[in-house]
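Colleagues,

For the teaching module next term, I've prepared a clean inverse folding example: a structure given as C-alpha cells, and then the sequence designed for it. I'd like students to try predicting residues themselves before seeing the answer, so please don't circulate the second half yet.
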C-alpha cells in the first residue's frame, strides 16, 4: 500500500533545487538538504514521528528514528547517513540498524529484550545512551527544538 504525505514544498519553495534523491537544497539544515516531498520513500520526513504515522497505512515499524548532526535540527532536514545504530537488549543481544541518506533508520520487526540501551558508531567515533529505554519510537523523545522539554535529536558521534 502506498502512503501519500503532504509535500513540504511550500516551506522550501524559494530554496528548492532537486538533488535527485528526494531532497532539496536548504541552507538552514546542517546537512544542506531537506526532504522535498513525494510518496513512499525511506528518505521521507526525517525527524518526524515515523511510528505514529505508520500506524495507519504503509509499512509498520517496530523501531524508527533519525540521526542528526545538530541537536536542534528542524523536522524535514536530512540527517547523517551510514551511522550504525546498535540496540542492545537487557539480555546483551544486539540488533544493528544503519541510517540511510536522510539519517532515517527503521525496522518492521524486532526481537529485543527490554529495556534496551543504544550505541551509535560513525567514522570511528562512538556515542552511548546508557539510560535503559522501553520506547522504540525515538522521535517521541528526540524531537526538534522546544518540544515537550525533549533532550534534542539523536546525535551522530
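(Answer key — instructors only)
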Amino acid at each position: 500500500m502506498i502512503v501519500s504525505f503532504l509535500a513540504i514544498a511550500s516551506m522550501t519553495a524559494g530554496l528548492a533545487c532537486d538533488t535527485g534523491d528526494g531532497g532539496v537544497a536548504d541552507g538552514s539544515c546542517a546537512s544542506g538538504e531537506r526532504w522535498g516531498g513525494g510518496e513512499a520513500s525511506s528518505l521521507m520526513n526525517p525527524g518526524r514521528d515515523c511510528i505514529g504515522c505508520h500506524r495507519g497505512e504503509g509499512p509498520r515499524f517496530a523501531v524508527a528514528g533519525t540521526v542528526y548532526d545538530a541537536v536542534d535540527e528542524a523536522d524535514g532536514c536530512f540527517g547523517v547517513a551510514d551511522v550504525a545504530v546498535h540496540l542492545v537488549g537487557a539480555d546483551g543481544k544486539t540488533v544493528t540498524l544503519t541510517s540511510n541518506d536522510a539519517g532515517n533508520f527503521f525496522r518492521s520487526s524486532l526481537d529485543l529484550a527490554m529495556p534496551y540501551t543504544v550505541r551509535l558508531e560513525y567514522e570511528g567515533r562512538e556515542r552511548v545512551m546508557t539510560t535503559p529505554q522501553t520506547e522504540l519510537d525515538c522521535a517521541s523523545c528526540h524531537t526538534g527544538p522546544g518540544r515537550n522539554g525533549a533532550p534534542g535529536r539523536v546525535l551522530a558521534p
